[in-house]
C-alpha cells in the first residue's frame, strides 16, 4: 500500500494565472488540434478494420521498421489527454469522437481479446513474435491508460471492458505457467498502466501481471534473444540489451542506461510496485537509479538522455547542449517516476526534481499556442531548431497534453493524518484528512513569486500535519500561521516543514520562498558547461534568446562573474513574466576579420542582456538560444 | 612555366638531428614494414593476374562498397615512398621487390593499356562506368607517381613505360573529341600525377590531359549524374557534388567544401596548371580558396576537414577538437598545395602554412617507431584515440612515408637569380643559380631553436638574391652576413628577406628567429575553442598529455592568463625536445561528490603542467591529451 497518495487531479482546481493559461490552452487548442492531426495522418482510420489494407503512411526505414506500428498508442494517449480535459469541462463533441473510436476498437478486437490494429490488419500471423521492437505491449498500455482515464471522466465503461478483455488475453499469454510465453515489453509502459487499472478496480491480478513483467525482465535465458532466434530475417533495430533495460534483472540495475523513456516508465512501475507490494529490493533499486541519474546524467532543465542515436543515455557527465536530445516524453516520464517515489518516501529531492523537470523541459515541449511541439529539447541552438506541428513519431505531443491536462494531480498528497504540499500555484482543492473534509485555497503568483498564501478550511477543527515542501533552492524561507512566525531553519525535514496543529476553519498560512537569481554551475566533468553558468530563479531555468537581444550575437555573450542580475517584470512578454536583466559583455569579432588564429585574446564590449524562462523559448520564430553562458 | 622551382629533394641532404631521425626511421622501419603489411593484407597478391578470383578481403559495406578497390593506389604510393628512400640509400632488396611488382603490373595490363587490377579481375565489363565512386583514375594517378619516382631513383623505365601506355589509353578514352567520354575523376589525384609526368618527360600531351580533367570538372551536363543514370542499380555513396568538388567549374569555386583530400589534390593540380600555363583565372581561384580555408576552416595544427562523415569540410568555424577528423592525408595534401602556390608567388603565408601543417598534423600521423599511424588527428582525446598498425583504408600510411622520405624537397626553391629558403633545419644542399653552382650548408637545431647558421659556397663569386623566409610568428628576427648586422624590420617583403649581393665562397649568414612561447587564441566563432588558448613555440603547436602530467586530470586543467610559461630542454624525452612548463591550475572535483549542479563555482588547486609538441603525442600508450586549454 502506498504510504502517501497523490491527490486526485480532479479535486484540485487551478486558479493561478500561470497554470490556468496552460490548461486553457491545452483544452481549447491542443486536444482538439491533436484530434485533427490524428485524423489527417490516417491514424484514426487505421483503427477501422477490416478494410482493404492501405499503403504505409510512414514508409519503412533502413531497418524495415515503420513508426506506424505505434499508432494505437497515439490514439490511447489522446483519449487519455481528452479524458483529463473532460474532467475540467465536459464536451459532448469530444465524447462522441471518443465513443466512435471505442466502437472501432471494439470491432477490431479479435474474439480472444487481442487488440492491436497493426498486427490484426497487416500480419496477424506474427502477433507476439517481436516484443523487443514492435511495441504491442506498449500500445496495449497506452490504450489501457486511455480506457482508465475515460472511465474515470465519464463513467462509461465500454472502452474499459474492451481493454479488460485484452488484458485478460495478455495475462493468459504471458507468465511463468505452462504454455505461457515468458516475454515482457520491448518498450515498457503497460506495467504502469496495469497498476492504474489495479488502482481503479482493485483487481490484484492486474498488479500481479505488472509485477510479472517487471520481475521477468532481464532474466536468463534472455527472452529477446530467444525470440529473435525464432524469427526469420530478424529485424534488428537496437543492438544492446541496455537499450531497453533488459540487460539485468531490474533489482540488480544500478546505472541508468539506454532509451530514456523506456527507462523512466520502467522505474515508475518499479516504484509503484515497491509502494504497493512493500518491496524493499525494488525500492532500493529505484533509489540507486535515482541517485545515479540525478548525480551524473541530468540536464539542468530536467532533461534526460543526451543522445539522439538511442534516444537516451550515454556516459556520466556527457551532457552536450546543442545536440541535447532530452526528449519531452522523458521529462514527463521523470515526473511520473518522481511522483511514485513521493508515494514511498516524503523526500524533498523527489519533489525538487519533479518541479525542475516540470517547469523546464516538460513545459518547453509545448508551444505557447498549444499546437506546436518539441520532441528534443536542446539547451543551445543556432536558431535552426524549430517547433513542429506534427512528427512521424508523435509520442511527445499527446504526452505533454495529457500531462498538462492532469498537472494539478502533482500538487498535493495525503497520508492518514497529513496534507502534503509539493508544488505551489493558485489552487482550490479538497481532501479528506484524518476523516475530516479539508478545503485548501492557495493564492500565489508562483512561479513568478514565492509569496504564497494558503487558507485551510477543515469541515471541523482537526489535528493533522500540513507538510509544506521547502524547495532546496529556497534559502531563508519564512512561514507564518495566522500571522505568527514559525521557525523554519532547522525544522525542515528532508525538504518538508511539518506544521502539526489543530487546524480550524479560516486558518491562514503565509509562506515566503525567496527567489533570488542564482548562478548555477555544472560538475567540472560536464565538458560542455565548463567555464559556463546557467541562471535560475526559483524553479525556472532561464535562457538568452535572440528575440530579446536583437543586437547581440547569442554565441558571443559572456557574463562577468560580478555582473549584477536583476529580476524584471515584463507584462509585455507572454502575458507577463519575470525576466532577468544583466549588464553583460559580448566578444568583439570586428578585429578578427580575416583572422582565424592570433596571439592576443578577444576584446569585449558592454551589452544589456535579457534572459527569459527556458520553457518559453522558440515561440517567436527562428531564434538562437543558450542556457549555459560563458563566464569571465 | 613555374616562376619558382622547388629544389630537387635529392639535392638537399638532411643533416640536422630533427629530420635525420625522422628520415632514418622512415627508411629503416616505415618503408620495410609497409611492404610487409601490403603483403600480409593480400594487397600485393591482388596484382597477380589472372588467377582464380579470391574472396574479398575487405567486405563490402552497407553501400555495397569495399575500400579494396583502392589497392592499386596503395601499391603505387608505397613504390613512390620506397623510391624516395632509394635516393637516400640504394637497396637492392627493395629494388627487387619493386621490380617484381612492376612485372605483375605489366602482366596484368591489358593490350589496350588499361591497368586496374580490381576491374580486370572482378568486373572487366564495368571499367570506366563509375568514375564517381570507384577510384580508377585515382589509382592510375598513384601508380603513375610511383612510376615517375622509381624512374628518377633508378633510371629503370619499365614501370614508366607501363604507365605511359596506360596514360595513352586514358588520354584516348577521355576528352572532348568524338567518341570520347567527358569524364573526370571522382577522387582527384591523376591531375597532379600527369603534371609530374610532364615535368619528367616534357611531353605536353600529359599537361593537356591534366588540364582537360581540371577544366571539364563541374561542367553541365554533370558527368557523374549522367554516368549514374547509365548504371543499373547505382551504388550511391556520397550524395553531394560538393563532396568531390564537382558542383561548379573549378574557376568558379570560392568555398573549400567536401572531402578534404580530394579538394587539396585538386587545388594542387590547379596551382600547378596555373604556374605551367600562366592561367590567371586558375590562380585567382586558388587564391580565393586559400583565403577561405585558412581564414575559416583550418585547425591550429594545420589539420583540415573536421567531419568524419564526409572526411572533409562542414561550415565556417566548425572546428571541434575531440572529434576532429583532420586526416593526415589532407595535411600532406595541403603541403603539396602550399608548395605549388610558392611556385607562383613568393608569399610567406604559403610557406607559413606549409610549415604549420608539416610540423604538426602531418608529423602526428607517424608514430615515433615509424610503424604506427593516425588517420584522423583530434586535438583532444580522453585516451581512447590510439595509433593503429594498419587500416582498412591505408592511404595515410604511405602518404606520410612518401612525404617524409622527400621532405627535404620543401626546404628550398630557386628562380633565375635567387635562392629561396622556405624551411630551416640542418642541411647540405646544392643549386645552380644564375649559371653558378652554389653549395649551401645550414647548421641549426631547428625547430627547437631559431639560431640558424648558413654558409654559402658558390663555385665563383656571383650576384644573386638569397631570400630568407621570416615566419610570421618570428618577431624581431635578426640577420647578419659575415658578422655584419642587416636591418630586418621593414625589409621583409611578403614574408621573405631579400639579401642581394655578390656571394663568395665562405660567406656566412646568421639568422636568429626568436621563439618565445605564444598563447594562441581562435576566432570567437570557433565554439570549441571559446575561452581557451593553445600554446605554440616557433612552428610547433604544443599539447598537454597525461604521460607528462601523471597526477593531473587533463580535462580539468585551467591556465591562468598570467601563468608563466617556460621552455625547458628535456633530453630525456624523444631524444631531446623543448617542452613547456607552466604553473597552472586544476579544477577540484572532490567537493563536487554526489553533486551535478550547484550555485558556487568550482575551486582550483595549483599544479605544475608540462606540454610537449603535439606531433609527439600518443607515443606512450593510451593517454588523455588536449591542445586547447581553458584559460581563467
Can you walk through the features of this model?
- The structure is a homodimer of 632-residue chains.
- Chain A has 632 residues and is an alpha+beta fold.
- Chain A has 3 domains: 406 residues, Glycosyltransferase, CATH 1.50.10; 101 residues, Maltose phosphorylase, domain 3 (Sandwich); 115 residues, no CATH class.
- The first copy, chain A, is 34% helix and 20% strand.
- The first copy, chain A, contains 15 helices and 24 strands.
- A 7-stranded antiparallel beta sheet of chain A has the order 2-6-7-8-14-10-11.
- The first copy, chain A, is globular and about 70 Å long.
- The model of chain A has no long low-confidence stretch (mean pLDDT 96).
- The interface between A and B is large, with 40 and 40 residues.
- Strand 15 of chain A pairs antiparallel with strand 21 of chain B.
- Average pLDDT of chain A works out at 96
Question: Mind telling me the C-alpha Rg of chain A?
Answer: 25 Å
Provide the number of structural domains of chain A.
3
Q: What's the number of helices of chain A?
A: 15
- In which order are the strands of the major sheet of chain A placed? 2-6-7-8-14-10-11
Q: Which structural class should the secondary elements of chain A be placed in?
A: alpha+beta
Shape descriptor of chain A: globular
Low-confidence region ranges of chain A: none
The profile of the biggest β sheet of chain A is:
7 strands, antiparallel
Q: Oligomeric state of the chains? A: homodimer
Strand content bin of chain A = 15-25%
Relative helix content of chain A: 25-40%
Largest interface: A-B, 40 and 40 residues
CATH C-level category of the largest domain in chain A: Mainly Alpha
Amino acid at each position: 500500500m502506498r504510504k502517501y497518495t497523490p491527490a486526485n487531479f480532479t479535486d484540485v482546481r487551478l486558479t493561478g494565472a500561470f497554470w490556468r493559461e496552460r490548461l486553457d490552452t491545452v483544452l481549447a487548442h491542443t486536444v482538439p488540434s491533436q484530434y485533427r492531426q490524428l485524423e489527417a495522418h490516417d491514424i484514426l482510420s487505421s483503427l477501422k478494420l477490416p478494410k482493404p489494407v492501405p499503403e504505409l503512411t510512414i514508409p519503412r526505414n533502413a531497418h524495415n521498421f515503420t513508426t506506424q506500428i505505434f499508432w494505437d498508442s497515439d490514439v490511447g494517449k489522446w483519449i487519455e489527454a481528452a479524458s483529463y480535459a473532460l474532467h475540467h469541462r465536459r464536451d459532448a463533441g469530444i465524447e462522441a469522437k471518443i465513443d466512435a473510436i471505442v466502437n472501432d476498437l471494439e470491432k477490431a478486437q479479435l474474439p480472444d481479446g487481442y487488440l492491436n490494429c497493426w498486427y490484426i490488419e497487416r500480419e496477424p500471423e506474427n502477433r507476439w513474435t517481436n516484443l523487443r521492437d514492435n511495441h504491442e505491449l506498449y500500445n496495449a498500455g497506452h490504450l489501457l491508460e486511455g480506457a482508465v482515464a475515460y472511465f474515470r471522466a465519464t463513467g462509461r465503461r465500454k472502452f474499459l471492458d474492451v481493454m479488460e478483455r485484452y488484458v485478460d488475453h495478455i495475462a493468459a499469454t504471458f507468465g511463468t505457467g505452462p504454455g505461457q510465453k515468458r516475454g515482457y515489453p520491448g518498450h515498457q509502459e503497460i506495467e504502469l498502466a496495469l497498476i492504474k487499472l489495479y488502482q481503479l478496480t482493485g483487481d490484484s491480478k492486474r498488479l500481479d501481471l505488472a509485477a510479472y513483467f517487471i520481475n521477468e525482465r532481464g532474466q536468463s535465458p534472455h527472452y529477446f534473444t530467444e525470440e529473435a532466434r525464432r524469427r526469420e530475417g530478424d529485424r534488428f533495430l537496437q543492438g544492446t540489451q541496455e537499450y531497453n533495460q533488459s540487460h539485468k534483472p531490474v533489482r540488480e540495475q544500478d546505472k541508468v542506461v539506454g532509451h530514456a523513456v523506456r527507462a523512466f516508465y520502467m522505474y515508475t512501475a518499479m516504484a509503484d510496485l515497491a509502494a504497493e507490494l512493500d518491496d524493499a529490493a525494488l525500492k532500493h533499486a529505484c533509489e540507486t537509479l535515482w541517485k545515479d541519474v540525478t548525480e551524473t546524467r541530468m540536464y539542468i532543465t530536467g532533461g534526460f538522455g543526451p543522445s539522439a542515436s538511442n534516444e537516451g543515455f550515454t556516459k556520466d557527465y556527457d551532457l552536450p547542449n546543442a545536440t541535447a536530445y532530452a526528449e519531452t516524453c522523458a521529462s514527463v516520464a521523470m515526473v511520473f517516476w518522481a511522483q511514485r517515489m513521493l508515494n514511498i518516501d516524503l523526500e524533498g529531492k523527489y519533489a525538487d526534481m519533479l518541479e525542475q523537470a516540470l517547469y523546464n523541459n516538460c513545459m518547453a515541449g509545448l508551444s505557447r499556442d498549444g499546437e506546436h511541439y518539441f520532441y528534443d529539447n536542446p539547451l543551445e541552438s543556432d536558431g535552426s531548431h524549430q517547433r513542429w506541428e506534427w512528427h512521424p513519431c508523435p509520442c511527445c505531443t499527446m504526452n505533454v497534453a495529457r500531462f498538462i491536462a492532469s498537472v494539478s494531480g502533482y500538487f498535493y498528497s495525503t497520508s492518514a493524518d497529513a496534507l502534503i504540499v509539493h508544488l505551489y500555484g493558485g489552487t482550490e482543492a479538497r481532501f479528506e484528512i484524518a476523516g475530516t473534509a479539508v478545503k485548501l485555497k492557495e493564492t500565489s503568483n508562483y512561479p513568478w513569486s514565492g509569496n504564497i498564501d494558503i487558507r485551510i478550511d477543515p469541515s471541523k477543527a482537526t489535528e493533522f500535519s500540513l507538510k509544506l515542501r521547502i524547495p532546496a533552492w529556497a534559502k531563508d524561507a519564512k512561514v507564518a500561521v495566522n500571522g505568527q512566525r514559525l521557525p523554519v531553519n532547522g525544522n525542515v525535514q528532508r525538504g518538508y516543514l511539518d506544521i502539526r496543529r489543530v487546524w480550524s476553519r479560516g486558518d491562514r498560512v503565509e509562506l515566503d520562498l525567496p527567489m533570488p537569481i542564482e548562478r548555477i554551475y555544472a560538475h567540472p566533468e560536464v565538458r560542455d558547461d565548463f567555464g559556463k553558468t546557467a541562471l535560475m530563479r526559483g524553479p525556472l531555468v532561464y535562457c538568452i534568446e535572440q528575440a530579446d537581444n536583437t543586437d547581440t550575437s547569442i554565441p558571443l555573450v559572456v557574463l562577468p562573474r560580478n555582473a549584477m542580475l536583476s529580476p524584471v517584470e515584463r507584462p509585455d512578454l507572454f502575458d507577463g513574466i519575470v525576466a532577468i536583466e544583466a549588464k553583460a559583455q559580448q566578444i568583439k569579432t570586428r578585429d578578427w576579420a580575416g583572422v582565424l588564429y592570433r596571439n592576443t585574446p578577444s576584446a569585449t564590449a558592454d551589452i544589456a542582456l535579457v534572459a527569459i524562462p527556458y520553457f518559453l523559448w522558440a515561440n517567436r520564430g527562428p531564434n538562437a538560444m543558450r542556457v549555459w553562458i560563458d563566464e569571465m
